[in-house]
Amino acid sequence: MEDPAAITQLRCASECLEFRQSYDHHDSDQQQRQVLDYTSGLWSHLPEQVMERILAFLPLPSFFRFRSVCKRWNSLMYSSRFLQICSQIGGITTRRPWFLMLKEPAITLTSEGWLYNPCARKWSKLPLSFLPPGARVVATADGILCCSIYSETRVMASKSSCKKLLVCNPLTKTCIELPSTLKERFVPTVGIVVNPETNSYKVMVAGDDMISPFAVKNLTTEVYDSRTNRWRMAATALPRLCNLESGKTVFVQGTFYCMNYNPFSVLAYDIEQEEWTNIQAPMKRFIRTPNLVVCRGRLVLVAAVEKNRLNVPKSIRMWGLQKQQQQHQSSAKNCTSWVELERMPQALYEDFLIRVSSSSSSSSSRSCEETSSSQEGVLLFSCVGNGDLILITMQNSPEMLILDLFEKVWRWLPRCPYIIGELLDDIIGHGMVVQGFPFNPRLDGLQNRN
């Protein structure tokens, strides 16, 4: 058992260390003072293990600043002992939500992503050049990226079939290539979930099985478990008439969820029961660009509501899924329903429309039971949720909008300083969307724990 008093003292020491570095950083006349040389004075007399425990309590941005102090501190992120300390005390990890942004399609021919820290309202770069050619980020969980690996010829063709995946921690550049999936799938839907206590993880892959380069058959599911290092086929197939073209999935309380576009619904996969169920979506005849996110620990569906010639105001709305248990002939049955949680204020919605490039009107939007190329006011956007926050990115625009679902506060994000030049032209002129993923940076991700 950890001594609470000792933990408090170590945390205070780390805060003192961070304060002193911050103080001297802003004192331009004394930046070269001996106080920054922690090889002398108080810090030089601390045992190495005590110093590591103090550093482990620092918030992640401060830790990366302090890596420049000396080679020893710079090497800590690769030290198994230091990472074990971080795991034990929960240090060097981000309790508050961050977001990872990538240009869609998120293929790492682009060698970096961008991290947004909502608390500090700051952007930073995340180098991804260490990933192999053709790696495409498809899912994230607890600071771990899951990537599909395509051959170079298939990268140029964008989405195609895939059997190889890898997981990585982009902070430590630790990569693990998973065994090949049992079946090759066309545009697979991929999801990952991490057990933070053991650092074990499971990866779910579902979609159309490739039986030849030009044909698909069946919709199957398989799950990889890092504890066994094996893939296992699910006992049941997906419901008939499925269309999982989005490739996106989210995980909430033991269940993976993804959008089904034909017919329009939400598909749920219970990872323990190995069963798929079909959930009817709200207002399915009127919504456009549906997105599934996790916010405040529950599944939330975000979509534009657009229906001409009916008394249905255009807006962006959010519904939360809630489960109810009903008794039917002495057997319990889980029933689901949707509850509207929030809708974008009308003035903000009009501002939202103004900021979207005018070329978006020529873009096609997926509508489930009703699709028409003559629709007006169609929006194409992407959403990602993390903690209490939902972040919205738009096609043809670098603008991003965020909602604090707890405080019911909307605000525009500061423009990402790294979306400039040709990249900005690609987003504005070619209908691309900046794709977001939930990301909680942690150094001890993918580290084995006994």
Automatic annotation (TrEMBL):
Q: Which domain of life is it from?
A: Eukaryota
Spell out the Pfam families in the cross-references: Beta-prop_KIB1-4, F-box
**Stretches assigned to the F-box domain:** 40-85
What InterPro entries does its record include? F-box-assoc_interact_dom, F-box-like_dom_sf, F-box_dom, Gal_Oxase/kelch_b-propeller, Kelch-typ_b-propeller, KIB1-4_b-propeller, SCF_F-box_component
Annotated membrane-spanning segments are: none
Designated name of the protein:
F-box domain-containing protein
